[in-house]
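Budget justification, computational time. The allocation requested in the original proposal was used primarily to generate structure tokens for proteins on the priority list. As evidence of use, we reproduce two of the resulting records. The first is shown immediately below.
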Amino acid sequence: MEPNPQTSEQPHPAVLELARLRAGLAAGLSVEQSARLQGATDEELTADAQAFAAELGLTGPPAPPASRVGGPRGSDVGNGAGTVTAGAERFRAKHPQRVTPAEQQRQTNPFRENGYTMENR
């Protein structure tokens, strides 16, 4: 990224931005922090990135993000209990019934006719 000594031109802005990003990421800075680096050469940008990272208390490049695929799963995954019946049993074990079967039988049928009619009047 050195400027051309024969023409004394500054590097293209895209090349300078790429050099900032490389120096900043190598020092553990974010993309936004890397955009603030000052310098025209790789060495200047690297020195500025290291000084900036030291001011922020960063020790090195950030750890890569954790993988979102696979990983630990629940206790009920993969143990052959993937059927609807097994799921219903697990639900019943986790949520016990509050109404006993005898109480369920005593409930009245909402469609049953009442014991009186209006014709008796």
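The second record produced under the same allocation is shown here.
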Amino acid sequence: MLITQLNDALTLAEQRDPSYLQLKRAAELAYDELVRRHPDLYRHIRAALQPYETRCGRLSMTGSRSDLRRQVFAELERLRAAPLHGRAWQAR
């Protein structure tokens, strides 16, 4: 969801701002950091978005994107708050 929103925002920025390439590179670096530092979180996010994906990075849904975002973030918070021995990941 975050990646889709970033991509949409960057597309709009491209039309308005000559610094588009810098913004796009920053988004790519953030994405790479998520995948590299938190692969379990990335897999969880991808699994949550998969039912709504029409193609990579594009979602089609009838419900609210903000509701889905809140749901995914709540799940990630529950994972983070899990007992130490049961954690799939830890905040760094």
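A brief technical remark on that second record: The chain has four helices and two strands.
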